[in-house]
Design goal:
- There is one protein chain.
- The chain has about 100 residues and is α+β, with helices and mostly antiparallel strands.
- About 25% of the residues lie in helices and about 35% in strands.
- A hairpin with a 2-residue loop joins strand 4 (about 60-65) and strand 5.
- This is Large ribosomal subunit protein uL23.
Length: about 100
Protein backbone atom coordinates (compact mmCIF):
# COMPACT_ATOMS: atom_id res chain seq x y z
CA UNK A 1 0.00 0.00 0.00
CA UNK A 2 1.12 3.53 -0.70
CA UNK A 3 1.19 6.26 1.94
CA UNK A 4 -1.96 7.89 0.56
CA UNK A 5 -3.83 4.57 0.70
CA UNK A 6 -2.87 4.11 4.37
CA UNK A 7 -3.81 7.62 5.55
CA UNK A 8 -7.43 8.21 4.51
CA UNK A 9 -8.25 11.56 6.16
CA UNK A 10 -7.54 13.66 9.25
CA UNK A 11 -10.14 13.58 12.01
CA UNK A 12 -11.12 17.12 12.99
CA UNK A 13 -13.22 17.33 16.14
CA UNK A 14 -13.05 19.36 19.33
CA UNK A 15 -11.15 16.63 21.13
CA UNK A 16 -8.63 16.06 18.33
CA UNK A 17 -8.18 19.82 17.91
CA UNK A 18 -7.35 20.15 21.63
CA UNK A 19 -4.83 17.30 21.35
CA UNK A 20 -2.93 19.21 18.64
CA UNK A 21 -1.50 21.41 21.41
CA UNK A 22 0.23 18.28 22.76
CA UNK A 23 1.63 17.42 19.27
CA UNK A 24 -0.96 14.63 18.82
CA UNK A 25 -2.81 14.34 15.53
CA UNK A 26 -5.72 12.03 14.71
CA UNK A 27 -6.22 10.28 11.36
CA UNK A 28 -8.53 7.71 9.85
CA UNK A 29 -6.33 4.94 8.47
CA UNK A 30 -6.84 1.75 6.46
CA UNK A 31 -8.17 -1.13 8.56
CA UNK A 32 -5.28 -3.38 7.56
CA UNK A 33 -2.56 -0.79 8.33
CA UNK A 34 -0.07 -1.53 11.10
CA UNK A 35 1.52 1.02 13.43
CA UNK A 36 4.79 0.89 11.51
CA UNK A 37 3.01 1.50 8.20
CA UNK A 38 1.15 4.46 9.71
CA UNK A 39 4.42 5.89 11.08
CA UNK A 40 6.17 5.59 7.70
CA UNK A 41 3.19 7.08 5.83
CA UNK A 42 2.95 10.13 8.12
CA UNK A 43 6.69 10.74 7.89
CA UNK A 44 6.57 10.45 4.08
CA UNK A 45 3.51 12.65 3.51
CA UNK A 46 4.10 15.42 6.06
CA UNK A 47 7.89 15.27 6.53
CA UNK A 48 7.85 15.09 10.35
CA UNK A 49 9.40 12.70 12.86
CA UNK A 50 6.84 10.44 14.56
CA UNK A 51 7.60 9.44 18.15
CA UNK A 52 4.50 7.37 18.92
CA UNK A 53 1.49 5.80 17.18
CA UNK A 54 -1.63 4.59 18.99
CA UNK A 55 -4.34 2.80 16.99
CA UNK A 56 -7.86 1.73 17.81
CA UNK A 57 -10.78 0.18 15.97
CA UNK A 58 -13.93 2.29 16.17
CA UNK A 59 -16.95 0.06 16.67
CA UNK A 60 -20.25 0.64 14.85
CA UNK A 61 -23.13 2.48 16.47
CA UNK A 62 -26.75 1.48 16.03
CA UNK A 63 -28.72 4.06 14.08
CA UNK A 64 -32.37 4.04 13.10
CA UNK A 65 -34.13 5.58 10.13
CA UNK A 66 -37.87 5.40 10.78
CA UNK A 67 -38.56 1.70 11.31
CA UNK A 68 -35.35 0.22 9.95
CA UNK A 69 -32.40 -0.22 12.30
CA UNK A 70 -28.86 -0.39 10.97
CA UNK A 71 -25.29 0.21 12.02
CA UNK A 72 -22.66 2.74 11.07
CA UNK A 73 -19.43 1.52 9.51
CA UNK A 74 -16.38 0.33 11.41
CA UNK A 75 -13.09 2.12 10.87
CA UNK A 76 -9.61 2.43 12.30
CA UNK A 77 -8.29 5.53 14.05
CA UNK A 78 -4.63 6.41 14.61
CA UNK A 79 -3.40 9.00 17.11
CA UNK A 80 0.08 10.08 16.03
CA UNK A 81 2.50 11.94 18.31
CA UNK A 82 5.13 13.96 16.45
CA UNK A 83 8.49 15.14 17.77
CA UNK A 84 8.67 18.24 19.94
CA UNK A 85 8.75 21.45 17.91
CA UNK A 86 7.25 19.91 14.74
CA UNK A 87 3.71 20.43 13.49
CA UNK A 88 1.43 19.08 10.79
CA UNK A 89 -0.55 21.63 8.80
CA UNK A 90 -3.96 19.97 8.49
CA UNK A 91 -5.81 23.08 7.30
CA UNK A 92 -3.05 24.37 5.03
CA UNK A 93 -2.16 28.02 5.41
CA UNK A 94 -4.44 29.81 7.82
CA UNK A 95 -5.15 33.50 7.41
Amino acid sequence: MTAHEIIIRPIVSEQSYDMMEQNKYTFEVAKSATKLQVRDAIEEIFGVHVTRVNTLNVKPKTKRVRYIAGKTRTWKKAIVTVAEGETIEIFGTQA
